[in-house]
Amino acid sequence: MKKKFKLIDLDCANCAAKMEDAIKKIDGVNDASVSFMTQKMMIDADDAVFDQVVQEAVKCIAKVEPDCQVVV
Amino acid sequence: MTDKQKKELKRIIIALVMFILLMITEHLILPHLSISGGPESAPQMPNIIAGAAIDILYIAAYLIVGHDVLRKCLLGIKNKQLFDESFLMTVATFGAFGCGELEEAVAVMLFYQIGEFFQGYAVGRSRGAITELMSIAPDYANRETADGSTEVIDPDDIQVGDVLVIKPGEKIPTDAVVIEGHGFINTAALTGESVPRSVGEGDQVISGCINGDDLLRVEALKEYDDSTVVQILEMVETAASKKSKTENFITRFAHYYTPAVVIAAVVLAVVPPLISGRFTEVFGTWLLRACTFLVISCPCALVISVPLAFFGGIGAASKKGVLVKGSNYLEMMAVLDTVVTDKTGTLTEGVFRVSSTLAAPGHDEADVIKYAAAVEAGSTHPIGAAIIAACSDPFPGSAVKDNVNHAGKGAEASVDGDRIAVGTSKLFDELGIEIPAESKASGEAGGTHCYVAKNGIYIGTVTVADMPKAEAAQAVKEMRAEGVRRIVMLTGDSKETAAETAAAVGISDYRAELLPQNKVRAAEELLAELGGEDEKANRSRRLAFIGDGINDAPVLSRADVGIAMGSLGSDAAIEAADIVIMDDKLSRIPAVIRIARKTIGISKANIVFALAVKFVCLALGAVGLANMWTAVFADVGVAVICILNSMRMLSE
User: Which residues share a beta bridge with B581?
Assistant: First the structure.
């Protein structure tokens, strides 16, 4: 399944790249992208674990940029 | 400006005012107040108190402007995300505090925050400008209910078959067909075409277009999620994730660069003091240098400016009605070498029109058309339709009777008492009507000839052709001017027709009578000539295919860049192509090449500029010639300059 999420207060391009790297490493993620320009995150992950993956991803984002919120 | 930015600006201004007042007090007022004695004399009580007060105020200013950086730094440490900007700034300013340079610490933090503010503001502005270009999504729809009244609904709730009312000035919420009313719709947001399109009952309208001054009642053909506008938005949004080589280079570069710089900084802090043999005395200085070094090294300017330039390029293209599906395609367009183009519907208009009329001596050209149109009346064949369309003064329907249709060859009918035959030379042979040799000879090339005879005697020829687009020749010329070395036309049509069109638009290289699979083979041969099978990765010259997207999907996907034309509303074309030209204009292609060039130019300039400034500052920082100010400039200053440079893309 593929889904897009809006990110609020994603302030730094380098952070977006870091988030993308971290999310790609989560188990079950086929592909992911964090776009600084559109302030959006795309996750493509296996259906069975999708919700867990999203939770993991939110944690990854909070780690890199604590102020950044994910609109789930 | 967002609320967050407003708050930040307020903090910066307060701290800046405090800082300036403190500087004035410390350097201009205090020295005059200390009346007694020179620097050697023991400090006096009031001076110590004043000095302490100033120090406290400096720290207050520092906290006002920089407390969020400290917080982020602490959170970063907690989350094991060391070496982000906040961490570096905190270490650097604390270093300055440690050396007693309060002024410098505040100044550096202030400068950093101002830079960050500008960076955020500039990025927000350009993001806003680009998304505005794409603000084609409708916010609501008016659905007509069973009792005839209308209700306002979310576009998501539209179902196929719903009757929607579109008031003047409203956006069309989903792809639909007009069932009542006629007027003009503005397609500029989608096609870049400023002339409104006329629509009437039975015409399809595309979501995202803006209705003119008339009320339209339409029936929804698609749900909102399948509508053109959603597809386009989706495409442009995902475009950012298809990264260009330049962007990938930057990501890879940052991957090695950051650890390398951190190691260099550690070495810088530890090794020179050890070698000097006076470790404790000089360690502070070298530690500060190492911090400066780290601040300079932050790769943000690089990571931000390159995608921004590409995003701007994609935005600029979409303003012109051209959708680019990824940064990588923009990159390829900049080094376009070969353009392979389809003929029908791409170089030509794709519809038949009467291109010339020839009348035998003693007959009028208008009459020839008039008779031909009468016989073809009711014909759905494209050639017949073209003749009918060319006749401005047709016979009344009652004057035409006894129609005989000769499939594939022509037709006969009695018109106003005269027996009229319209058809090919084959039909005329069968009917035993002689076509004068000179009329036959003059019509060798350039379309389909329909001979017309009245009562068994040849009276003229109507030639019907798919005419080249008016701007095709100009577009071909411009493409060459933009550095396209080779333009090849592929067509399934006969050699004669192909030669005619090719000559008309200024293409010397063409392949005719190709079946669809032969078109793919032709494209592959041309690709091979450009450097062959090392696929999409490493070729400095690229091949683009331009088609109308209807039956050339295989070639579209085989080419480096597949460009679909005139495909507003055609899902298949949007799906198969890499670049979609929403209207029919070939002139968009040289325009896209120009945009692509400019994008690449800007992103390269940014990379070179940012790296050059960084390396110079790093070198200066390592030997102690660059202070914190320089470091902050090399970090945020360079980023801001690169962003401003990228924003030039938006004025395109």
Answer: B322, B565
Distance of CA A62 to the CA centre of its chain: 10
Find out whether B208 and B170 touch, Cβ atoms under 8 Å.
no
CB contact (8 A) between residue B307 and residue A13? yes
Question: Which alpha helices (DSSP H) does B460-565 contain, by range?
Answer: 472-481, 495-505, 516-529, 553-558
Which of A7, A14, A33, A42 has the highest number of chain B CBs within 10 A, making it the mutation to test binding with B?
Answer: A14
* Nearest beta carbon to residue B303 from set A17, A38, A64: A17
pLDDT single digits (tens) B417-476: 888 888 888 888 888 887 877 777 555 556 778 888 888 888 888 888 888 888 889 999
Residues in chain A: 72
Predicted TM-score of the model (pTM): 0.73
Domains and CATH numbers, chain A: 2-71 (3.30.70.100)
Chain B closest-CA separation from residue A41 CA (Å)? 10
The residues on A that touch B, with CB distances below 8 Å, are: 4, 9, 11-15, 17-18, 33, 35-40, 42, 62-64, 66-67
Give me the phi and psi of B335, to 5 degrees please: -120, 40
Interchain CB distance below 8 Å, A14 and B303: yes
Residues sharing a CB contact under 8 Å with residue B134, sequence separation 6 or more, in sequence order: B232, B233, B236, B315, B318
Express each pLDDT in B546-585 by its tens digit.
Answer: 987 667 778 888 888 999 887 665 667 777 788 888 777 8
Interacting residues of B507 by C-beta distance below 8 A, sequence separation 6+: B341, B347, B476, B487, B488, B489
Amino acid at B318: S
